[in-house]
Design brief:
The chain is of the alpha+beta class. Helix content is about 55%, strand content about 20%. It has two domains: about 80 residues; about 90 residues, H-NOX domain (Alpha-Beta Complex), CATH 3.90.1520.10. It is globular and about 45 Å long. The relative contact order is 0.15.
């Protein structure tokens, strides 16, 4: 069985988020939460490298313990900040030509550039989109971070009042994660 991998840009974005919003000392607290091996890998990660998705989940959990409440509630904020870092102002202007519903079709195609596992299927429903993610790593921290990232993408396309409910999750034994995004266009 292949170990799910992701691009290192996520690690760089999380480091930037912690340093900007919580300070350099907070980043050191995050590093202290990790094992020596994980700490070394996170500190040497490069944006274009490939790393285990489980390592990213451990990093997110360490950030939540060091900078949040340890209950994963900080991770949606981190996901939104990562979207801000990933998509510069010029790209955000181009995203405005998409409707909030269309962003999920684009995300489905872009996913494989940053993740080597998982696939998306989305269905437009009244007031939003139900997006299903199949075959990705199983960890609640990843789901919370991803939910925040995609809410921010909906906002970039002009979606107002964007929210998400993660009703079905592989962590709870389901065959997929379903994110119910609601917004007005």
């Amino acid at each position: 069985m292949q170990i799910p991998q992701m691009k290192g840009i996520g690690f760089a974005n999380v480091r930037s988020y912690v340093r900007e919003y919580h300070g350099a000392a907070a980043w050191q607290r995050v590093m202290n939460e990790l094992s020596a091996a994980d700490r070394n890998e996170v500190e040497t990660a490069i944006a274009i490298g490939w790393y285990e998705v489980k390592l990213f989940a451990r990093l997110l959990r360490a950030v939540d313990r060091a900078c949040g409440q340890g209950d994963l509630s900080l991770l949606r904020e981190i996901g939104a900040a990562e979207a801000d870092l990933d998509l510069n102002r010029v790209l955000r202007v181009f995203l405005r030509i998409l409707t909030p519903s269309q962003i999920f079709k684009v995300e489905g195609r872009l996913w494989s550039h940053f993740q080597d596992s998982g696939s998306w299927d989305s269905v437009k429903v009244p007031g939003g989109v139900d997006a299903s993610l199949f075959g990705w790593e199983v960890d609640a921290a990843l789901c919370e971070e991803l939910a925040g990232y995609l809410v921010r993408l909906v906002q970039f396309t002009g979606g107002k009042g964007a929210s998400v409910y993660h009703r079905t999750c592989r962590v709870r034994g389901h065959d997929r994660c379903v994110f119910e995004y609601r917004f007005s266009e």
